[in-house]
Amino acid sequence: MRLIVENLACRRSGRRIFSGLSFTLGPGEALMITGRNGAGKSSLLAMLSGRLKPDAGTIRGEDIGDAGLPECLHVVGHRDGLKSALTAQENLDFARDLLGDAQLTPGEALAAMGLPHVARLPVGYLSAGQRRRVALARLLVCRRPLWLLDEPTAALDLASQDVLAAMMGRHRAEGGLVVAATHQALGLEDARELRIGPATAEQVLDERIEESWA
Ligand SMILES: Nc1ncnc2c1ncn2[C@@H]1O[C@H](COP(=O)(O)OP(=O)(O)OP(=O)(O)O)[C@@H](O)[C@H]1O
């Protein structure tokens, strides 16, 4: 698939966060979204996943057949979306049934993340890093070409960061796309970087002029 983003603008609580943001991502490509705290990285991922409406601009997928963009992507965000009372295995079973297009079994995905021993433990009993690894294992139980990852290495030890880097490498080798918001290197070879900065004084002025005419 291809992801095409044109002239995207974001406004939160009435304040312009970024504007004029464009990029295209093709099969096997990766994009690192960087920028200081509050620059709008998570907001951009929320827009790409369809959870947040852009203030302006368009987001579309090409070569995705009859599927809509939301059916082509996986999100691993700050909030992991795991149910604490369910076991790791049950959480992954749930994701697999819900999302369809099954790939690895939950057991295989947990083994790939180095967590075969936690399959039958409620996720609420896991450490922060183990819990994040279960959230990342969800990427492997269903095939989705576009991975949207928000600080994916948060709470991961160095060995798990290497596992994640290898996972993203395999995904890209199979034609998958990765968009990751991050403050640190992720081991993404040949990744492009999109640095989001605060709106310039000129943009803020343009916006005020537009508003005064509206
Ligand atoms: N739900 C919300 N409602 C209103 N404003 C929000 C909301 N979420 C975030 N914001 C604001 O939008 C701006 C961008 O936040 P965002 O979380 O996208 O930044 P970020 O670049 O991901 O930051 P960080 O590096 O700290 O994770 C911030 O000023 C934040 O206060």
TrEMBL record:
Native species:
Methylorubrum suomiense
What InterPro entries does the entry give?
Answer: AAA+_ATPase, ABC_transporter-like_ATP-bd, ABC_transporter-like_CS, ABC_transptr_haem_export_CcmA, P-loop_NTPase
Show the SUPFAM superfamilies listed in the entry. Answer: P-loop containing nucleoside triphosphate hydrolases
Q: Does the keyword Oxidoreductase apply?
A: no
Against PANTHER family, the record matches this protein to: ABC TRANSPORTER I FAMILY MEMBER 1 (PTHR43499)
Domain of life, per UniProt, equals Bacteria
Q: Name one GO molecular function term.
A: ATP binding
Q: What is this protein called?
A: Cytochrome c biogenesis ATP-binding export protein CcmA
Tell me the Gene3D superfamilies matching this sequence.
Answer: P-loop containing nucleotide triphosphate hydrolases
- Please provide an example of a Pfam family that matches this protein in its UniProt record: ABC_tran
Task: Provide the ABC transporter domain boundaries.
Answer: 3-213
Task: Say which family it is in.
Answer: Belongs to the ABC transporter superfamily.
NCBIfam families the record matches: ccmA (TIGR01189)
